[in-house]
Every structure is written in structure tokens, then in C-alpha cells.
Structure to design on (451 residues):
């Protein structure tokens, strides 16, 4: 299908829906599950500061660049890059940037659905009252017994994968838009309620100083790389998701405004989730660096103690599932749109073919927490950790680097103005950031880690 036809068929109903969908993609497990645990593993405040700097100095500009490339290219990421390369008379090999993103999306989704499965399982457990008056030790045991059971993990992974395929196969309007319209505001309200709870418990102050009082002696080269990778992961950039979403965006909508909203909402949710989790950690003498299980070992304790905990707990895990779900949909969309516009597959066929492939890859992650928990693939990392590292810390930064290079060095000022419509002074600052600061920062962090 030619690009023009694809983009004519699929256009967001309005700017708000686009922002909600993009926020839906950005806000997910990355904010609620991953941000707290990697912050705990990397020492707190200094890590948070580097992450915030990465969001502002690299993430936001690359986000604007990626959406612009998508809208201008008007197709799936590899095809959009080909169109743009053609328009600017440069090498068609730029399509590989799109391919890198598609592969990263497939790999990320394969572990993402497994973790989302944990949240579904917790939703169910909360609903049946399992967390009532649960102690910290019992919560830790509860988590261990879930992840040590591969059949249970496989079951929930399958459920999430199936629902994702079904929604995605229905397409943009009837599938994605419907799911996200109500859930993003609901999630925010619930997080604020939990924030109120966090303020009332003893660990609140300690949680604030853990997150916001930087101790730079705890920062390593590796943790800077992780903070940068996470900035891309959490904003859903570097893999073509925002490019595809941008390709469905009408010319009359503002990319700058949308990008600022996306980054703001995403950062706010992560910080609020961090404060909630660490308040519970410090109130109950838990370990901040306890890894991927952190969210699941802490929140049930809070829900078990608070009045109305059954209701809030069930609602909370339900919303985590939906947040994960709107991100899952966006992780697979670059690949689907490519199968449709490059390989002329129907949306339905593309969704099922990719879904099966991702489901199979996900089995590796299912096993990483039990039978393969001592099988290492890369430098002492389990299958899950290896996938997470390669995608988040290598593929996404590389994707972002090349997006910045293409946007900053190949597009003309006229083309950029057409997409971004910024006042001249702002435009100059923006272009220099994308041209120099973003690529240099990514390169420095990479090279420093290699050395
Ligand atoms: N941003 C999502 C999160 O924070 O959970 C994950 C994600 C979605 C990453 C889509 C990349 C992407 F393209």
C-alpha cells in the first residue's frame, strides 16, 4: 500500500486522542514497575537526576524528531525512512533504522507481556482477597511462588498476548483509541490516592531523600547507560513506535505540544510511582535493591494494611495491566504497519503471525525466573536480563542516535519548520540540541561503557 493511502486510512480522530495514545504508549510498566526497581538497584537520587537530564536533553528532542519523521515519512518505520531518504536524495539504507526498531519492539514485547502477566495475576489475587493483612515476608513469598511456577507465568503471558493480538488486529480506531480514552486519567487518579497513602506512612520522608538527594558516589558508568536507556524506553522512543503514531497524525496538529505533554505525563507517573514504592519499602524495612520483584513485594503490603485496600489494590493492579496493555499495543504496531505496507499482509494476518513469534520468544523470559534462572546468556545475565539489556541499552539508544542524526543533519531547515512550526529562536536551539547534544551524549555514554 503506498504511503499516502496508508496514512489516509489511518488518522487519529483528533489531537487529544493522539496525545492519549502516545501517553498510553509511554506510560506503562517502564514507569510503575521498572523505574522504581532500577532506581533501587542504582542507588537512588543521582541516578534519578541523570535520568531526568536524559529525558529533558535527549528524550524530548528525539521524541519530537521521531514523531516528525513518522508524519513526514507517512508510513511504517522502514518505509517512512525510505521515503524520507528519497525525498532528501540520500542512501536508502536508512530503512535499516526502521528495521532495528521493529526487531527491538518484538524483543521487548516478548518480555513485556510476561511482566504484564504478573500484574494480571496480582489483579486476580487482590480481587480474591489474598493480600488482606499480608506481612512483608508473606508478600515476598507470594512473589517467589508466582515466578517459580513456569506454567502459571506461561498462562498469564498467553492471556496478555492473546488480548494484545485481538485488539491490534482490529486496527487503530476501533481497537487502540477505545482502550485508552478512559484508562489514562483513571490511572493518574489512582496513583494520586496511593500517593496520599504514601504521605501518611513513616517511610515517606526517607523515600523523598532516597529519590531526590543525589549521592554521586553511587553512580557508575553502567548506571548512566541504564538511566539513558531507560529514558528512551520510558518515552517509547528509538524503536519506531512514535514514528508510526506520528504517521497517523494529521498535519494540522502540533508535534511540539504533544511531545511536551507526553514527556511531562510520563515523568510525573514515574516519579509518583517511585515515591509510593519507596515509602512502602522504607516503612517496612524492605530492600530497595531487590530487583524486578520490587513493586510486587511492596504494594500488596500497603493494600493489605489500608482501609479499602481490597478495592484500591484490585483497581490499581487492573490499571497497571491496562497501562501495560496500551504500551504493548504500541510495541507491536511498527512491525504490523510494516507487514501491511511493505508485505501487503492483512492486519489480521500480520497480528497473528507476529503474535505467535513474540509469544514463543516470551517463553525464554518465563523460564528465566525458574528453570533457567542460572542459565546465563551474556555476561552473567539471564535470558530476560540479556534481552532487556540488548534492547534498552543498545538498540534503543542506537535507534535514537540515528533518528537524531537523520533529523538534525539530513532534513533541511525548511522541512523541520514545516513539521515543528517553532519560533525562530526556539527552532535554532532545538536543531542544535538534536544535531549536537543528543548524538554526542549517546556516543559518550556508549564509548565510556565500552572502555
Ligand atoms: N514506554 C513503555 C513503558 O514505559 O512501559 C514501554 C515501551 C513502549 C517502550 C513502546 C518502547 C516502545 F516503543
Amino acid at each position: 500500500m503506498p504511503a499516502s493511502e496508508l496514512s489516509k486510512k489511518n488518522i487519529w480522530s483528533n489531537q487529544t486522542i493522539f496525545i492519549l495514545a502516545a501517553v498510553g504508549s509511554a506510560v506503562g510498566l517502564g514507569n510503575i514497575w521498572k523505574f522504581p526497581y532500577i532506581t533501587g538497584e542504582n542507588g537512588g537520587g543521582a541516578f534519578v537526576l541523570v535520568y531526568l537530564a536524559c529525558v529533558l536533553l535527549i528524550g524530548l528532542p528525539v521524541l519530537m524528531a521521531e514523531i516528525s519523521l513518522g508524519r513526514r515519512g507517512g508510513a511504517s518505520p522502514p518505509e517512512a525512512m525510505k521515503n524520507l531518504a528519497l525525498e532528501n536524495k540520500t542512501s536508502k539504507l536508512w530503512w535499516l533504522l526502521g528495521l532495528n526498531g521493529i526487531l527491538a519492539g518484538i524483543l521487548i514485547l516478548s518480555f513485556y507481556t510476561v511482566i504484564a502477566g504478573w500484574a494480571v495475576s496480582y489483579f486476580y489475587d487482590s480481587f480474591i482477597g489474598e493480600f488482606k493483612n499480608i506481612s512483608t515476608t508473606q508478600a515476598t513469598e507470594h512473589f517467589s511462588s508466582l515466578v517459580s511456577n513456569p506454567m502459571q507465568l506461561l498462562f498469564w503471558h498467553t492471556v496478555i498476548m492473546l488480548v494484545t493480538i485481538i485488539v491490534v488486529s482490529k486496527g487503530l480506531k476501533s481497537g487502540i483509541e477505545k482502550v485508552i480514552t478512559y484508562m489514562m486519567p483513571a490511572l493518574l487518579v489512582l496513583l494520586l490516592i496511593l500517593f496520599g497513602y504514601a504521605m501518611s506512612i513513616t517511610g515517606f520522608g526517607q523515600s523523598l531523600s532516597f529519590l531526590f538527594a543525589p549521592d554521586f558516589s553511587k553512580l557508575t558508568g553502567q548506571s548512566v547507560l541504564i538511566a539513558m536507556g531507560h529514558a528512551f524506553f520510558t518515552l517509547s522512543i528509538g524503536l519506531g513506535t512514535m514514528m508510526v503514531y506520528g504517521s497517523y497524525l494529521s498535519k494540522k496538529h502540533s508535534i511540539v505540544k504533544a511531545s511536551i505533554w507526553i514527556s511531562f505525563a510520563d515523568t510525573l507517573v514515574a516519579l509518583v510511582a517511585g515515591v509510593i514504592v519507596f515509602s512502602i519499602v522504607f516503612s517496612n524495612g524492605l530492600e530497595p535493591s531487590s530487583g524486578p520483584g520490587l513493586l510486587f513485594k511492596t504494594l500488596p503490603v500497603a493494600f493489605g494494611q489500608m482501609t479499602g485496600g481490597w478495592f484500591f489494590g484490585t483497581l490499581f493492579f487492573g490499571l497497571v495491566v491496562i497501562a501495560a496493555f496500551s504500551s504493548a499495543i504500541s510495541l507491536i504496531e511498527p512491525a504490523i504497519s510494516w507487514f501491511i505496507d511493505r508485505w501487503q499482509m492483512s492486519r489480521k494476518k500480520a497480528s497473528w503471525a507476529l503474535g505467535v513469534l513474540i509469544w514463543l520468544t516470551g517463553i525464554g523470559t518465563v523460564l528465566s525466573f525458574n528453570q533457567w534462572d542460572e542459565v546465563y546468556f551474556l555476561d552473567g545475565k539471564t535470558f530476560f536480563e540479556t534481552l532487556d539489556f540488548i534492547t534498552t541499552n543498545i538498540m534503543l539508544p542506537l535507534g535514537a542516535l540515528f533518528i537524531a542524526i537523520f533529523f538534525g543533519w539530513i532534513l533541511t531547515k525548511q522541512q523541520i519548520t514545516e513539521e515543528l512550526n517553532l519560533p525562530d529562536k526556539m527552532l535554532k536551539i532545538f536543531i542544535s540540541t538534536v544535531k549536537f547534544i543528543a548524538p554526542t551524549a549517546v556516543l559518550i555514554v556508549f564509548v565510556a561503557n565500552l572502555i
